[in-house]
From TrEMBL:
InterPro entries: Methyltranfer_dom, SAM-dependent_MTases_sf. Keywords: Methyltransferase, Transferase. One of its GO terms (molecular function) is methyltransferase activity. This is Methyltransferase domain-containing protein. Coiled coil: none annotated. One of its GO terms (biological process) is methylation. Signal peptide: none annotated. CDD domains: AdoMet_MTases (cd02440). Residues 93-218 form the Methyltransferase domain. The keyword Methyltransferase applies.
Length: 247
């Protein structure tokens, strides 16, 4: 395990207490419990927002101040990011959306793999969008489109993409039901969702509990959104690589 990894993660997690993060705007509930339709509000983990869905507390997100952690040199080795992209079996004409794209760590690698397709880099934080546009201009990547999302919408047209990638971001969605409705709408028939989350079953994964997900919890939530688990590829060191298809 990387001590540097832990230090970086803990530092930037604290940043989210003071900034509006990706797909999250709810405040912690100080006392008691409230119900708002499908969501529950109550006290929980100090790293959570006090909002619960299907028994899982939604986590605070990392603000754009965490870009250096996203782009850390050791990330490729720690997370085996090249294996993740291999798992996606990207074809030369695939249209792909990276939801919660951040600084574009995966976006520009995927763009090279689908030169005849388009990669949509979706984020809601202006700081991340600025970084994405700057990198697109710097690398002159014509097949990347930067898209500003919202807390409830990925803002992509219906049936517009073949594959959707969500890396360590779903557990931070303030409105998971609304977001997954939008995700499902954007996927073409036969399209696949690649849900990457740190393994909640593994205590050895050096990530705070609220920022992990178990396979069983992910399957429950995706089933409620109309997705079925096709397979969970177990070749990543710390993360699930769950492949879902829409039913």
């Amino acid at each position: 395990m990387s001590l540097t990894y832990n230090l970086h993660f803990n530092r930037f997690l604290l940043c989210t207490l003071f900034t509006v993060g990706l797909f999250s705007s709810e405040s912690c509930i100080s006392q008691g419990e409230k119900q708002d339709g499908i969501y529950t509000f109550k006290q929980g983990d100090p790293n959570g927002i006090g909002k619960w869905y299907m028994g899982r507390e939604i986590a605070y997100v990392m603000g754009y101040q965490g870009i250096s952690w996203l782009e850390r040199p050791e990330r490729g080795n720690e997370e085996k990011t090249s294996l993740l992209l291999e798992n996606m079996e990207i074809g030369p004409g695939d249209d792909i959306a990276d939801i919660g794209a951040g600084s574009g760590y995966h976006v520009f690698k995927m763009a090279q793999m689908t030169q005849e397709g388009t990669v949509y880099a979706v984020d809601v934080q202006e700081g991340m969008l600025v970084a994405l546009r700057a990198k697109k201009e710097r690398e002159k990547t014509a097949n990347v489109e930067v898209v500003k999302g919202s807390e409830k919408e990925i803002n992509l047209p219906a049936n517009s993409v073949d594959k959707i990638l969500m890396v360590d971001v779903y557990h931070e969605f303030a409105y998971p039901v609304e977001m997954m409705t939008s995700v499902k709408k954007a996927l073409r028939p036969g399209g696949k969702l690649y849900l990457i989350e740190y393994r909640g079953e593994d205590r050895e994964v050096p990530i705070k509990k609220v920022h992990k997900m178990t396979e069983s919890q992910a399957v429950r939530e995706m089933a409620a959104a109309g997705f079925k688990l096709e397979k969970n590829i177990g070749n990543l060191p710390w993360q699930h690589c769950m492949v879902f298809i829409k039913e």
